[in-house]
Amino acid sequence: MMELTTIKDAFERVTKKQKLSSSKSQEVIDQVGHEIEQALGKIQSADDPTSPVDQKSILTDLKLKLNALVPLHQLEGSQKELNLNLSKYPKLLEKFFNPDISKAYRNVDFDFHIVNQTVANHFYRQGLFDLGDRIVNEAGEPEAIAIRSQFFEMHQILEAVRVGNLEPALKWASINREKLKQNGSNIELKLHRLQFVEILRRGSLADSLNYARAYLAPFATLHMEEIQKLMACLLFARRLDSSPYADMTSPTQWENLTEELTGQFCSLLEQSYESPLSVAIAAGVEGLPTLLKLANVMAAKKPEWQAMKQLPVPVELGKEFQFHSIFVCPVSRDQASDENPPMLLPCLHVLCKQSIMKLSKSGTRTFKCPYCPAEASFTHCKQLHF
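RE: above sequence
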């Protein structure tokens, strides 16, 4: 935190000097321009503009005034102060931030087949289909092309929604109605609601009623309150934007629907809402400072650093990066792993296997649970799977 404060203060000094330099330069330019304009005015208003004597005296007077301003000296002074602060700032950044992030790299065996597919899928997910195709062809991953058509359909639907056309989205929701219900999604109703509101905004009361009878009525059993609210909108057919239901016409309705539509589409494809590549990079950026510090500490022990299967220090990541349950042994404070799994004691307390082995003298004795009076043996403990 202290480092960030120091860098922020240095940055603010640089920006302040930049503003002062810019302001001073503009002031000098304005002064020079003013003197030149005055000289031109005198020349144009002289009794005999063609007289070289009059022009020479005016220009001589202009030169004296410009010399008195010393514009170059003023500009150089402010620019010098700015350059001094600018030259210090990169040095400060280098002091606190190590630009060589390759120090945190370790020789890790990657499944390049999965990596290539992840990169290709990322581009398909973003709608960059030509780029995704190139990755697939150059990496020789024809299997990755399978997801392309599905993401292509998603982007066609989203593009239509962005221009106010809900028909492709409604068709998709109708086809996948049962799967969406299993996901607990009511996005089909939300699409019909938005379509109903758009018809009503255009001022066609009869068309709105017909649409409600055809497409909203089937949802009345489970969503009566929502349907009643929509029917109340009919009372404000020509002034919905200024009615108590104006929120239904807000652009955020379309934005929220687009996000939810993307999420549900990805869910049916058994794909995460966020691109796995984006999540991996974001998590890497957040954990990089800790990894760099550890790499510097382990610089003299490169073989150990390369051979580590588990980091000796925690890498704090936000909750958005936690996708599965984890268990930390309350005795050893170690995080459970395949080699040291969580074990359920008969008293229903949970410890890691290595802690139980220590308490039971490698499984040869009964031991007392650290959290209750109950006794147990290693053979009565059951491995847990999260």
